Predict the 3D structure of the following.
Amino acid sequence: MKNLSKTYGEGDTKVNALTDATFSIKKGEFLLIVGSSGSGKTTLLNMIGLLDKPTAGMVFIDDTETTKLNDNEISSFRNSKLGFVFQFANLMPDLTVLENVILPRSIQKTEQNAVDDAMKLLRAVGLESQIHKRANKISGGQAQRAAIARALVNRPSIVLADEPTGNLDSVTTETIIQLMKSMARKLNLTFVVVTHDREQFGEVDRVITVKDGRVIETENNSMKVVA
């Protein structure tokens, strides 16, 4: 991210959601973005994930300046390079767990070996016994595990998670956090997680705090403004 800013509205309704953020994320990092409600952390995640375009600045992913891509290129890049896990699993209720996990491969038209790849991921997240159940017949924790498997099925460079445990009880929350950390280590994946509860996540590689639209980096218990 280089000099990244996002403004909503005009004139009296103008809001600076993010101001001049510049920082890098290393491959394989498990990084948290924290901040109070309305601080700009989800705005930041949405721009990293190409779900929203910055008003100014640039986002580079794997040496590609994504802010120069057109809409079709953005969709293709996002589907091949990025995986998403949201607060609500957002599974298709009438599809089975397996069908939900395969869905990104169907969209990308890379269905060869998709079932085998999806099955490996479902075994890894502990859902092998649930694969033929419809998504509306499994628990919230199981749905979030399926969402993690779906996020990984395209072998993305980065997994972006927005409050992935915000809708879960404390026991399930701990399970999901440990699952994400385990998958990050096993697959050498970069995880960028937005959370309002930093303490839930225990030890992580790095924490970025967003306050009033500005990025503050927390490192080795010291804080420095980086944007």
